[in-house]
Design a protein that fits this description.
Blueprint lengths: L2 H27 L5 H36 L5 H26 L6 H27 L12 E6 L2 E7 L11 H15 L34 H9 L13 H11 L3
Antiparallel strand pairs: 1-2
Helix pairs in contact: 1-2, 1-4, 3-4, 5-7
């Protein structure tokens, strides 16, 4: 089981606990005349809330640890993920404060709980839902094959980046030509392909002839380039939107420098 699949599974369980907690909340606020049943639903709502918080903390730990290990700028989808998570934290704090300190606002707990449930649905949808869909429920490992993450003590660490290449570099003229076109249109503004001088990013002449990549220090292999395109370091933007063929064509051209 990969870190990504584990995080997705925990996220889905978190969403289920949020849905069940919302259901119990609506039963309670539905003013059911059966007092015993209402009390039981309150207990279930509280348990679901505790489970939700525990799972939320576990998923947050994996996300933060992954970001620390990868040392990359968040993608637009990851940035939205972070904003939604922070919004949920703020709403949880407000809800607890209302229930513990300001009982006169008890009715507002229903609105806040509903907002938490909706944000949780969106949060899980754009993270776990996206990963499980594109990975065919974890069966396709190409989403995370460029790096191996492992728990080292209490923290997540990059165990391997690059390493043995999984797939030969293309050498046909068409792939190289397409890669040159991609480089000129997407990369040439920041990288000089004919020298090692720094423009915005480092020059890439002889890129694959060196033992390590500039800046990152990762092994100078095609697998490291694939990882760098998906999860770049520093100011380099993410090129995760490139198709598999586009990335391979770009690597084919870089191999000729």
């Amino acid at each position: 089981m990969t870190i990504f699949f584990l995080k997705s599974t925990l996220s889905l369980l978190m969403l289920l606990s949020a849905v069940y907690g919302m259901y119990a909340m609506y039963v309670v606020f539905g003013q059911i005349p059966d007092t015993d049943r209402a009390a039981a639903q309150k207990r279930r709502h509280r348990v679901a809330g505790y489970v939700y918080v525990v799972l939320f903390l576990a998923v947050s730990y994996l996300c933060v640890a992954f970001a620390m290990a990868a040392r990359t700028e968040p993608s637009p989808r990851a940035a939205i993920h972070i904003l939604l998570a922070l919004a949920i934290v703020a709403l949880l704090m407000i809800k607890v404060m209302f229930l513990r300190r300001f009982r006169q606002f008890y009715e507002q707990a229903k609105v806040i709980g509903t907002a938490i449930g909706i944000l949780s649905f969106v949060l899980v949808g754009i993270s776990a839902g996206y990963y499980l869909a594109v990975s065919r429920v974890g069966q396709d490992r190409t989403m995370d094959r460029s790096a191996v993450y492992a728990l080292r003590g209490p923290f997540l660490a990059v165990k391997e980046i690059g390493g043995p290449d999984r797939g030969a570099i293309r050498t046909d003229s068409r792939s190289i030509a397409r890669g040159r076109f991609l480089f000129v249109s997407r990369c040439a503004a920041c990288h000089d392909p004919l020298s090692t001088r720094t423009v915005v990013g480092p020059g890439l002449q002889g890129l694959f002839k060196k033992p390590k990549l500039p800046v990152s220090g990762h092994p100078a292999t095609a697998e490291s380039i694939r990882f760098q395109l998906k999860q770049p370091l520093g100011r380099m933007p993410s090129f995760a939107y490139l198709s598999h063929d586009e990335a391979e064509d770009l690597i084919a051209y870089l191999n000729t420098l």
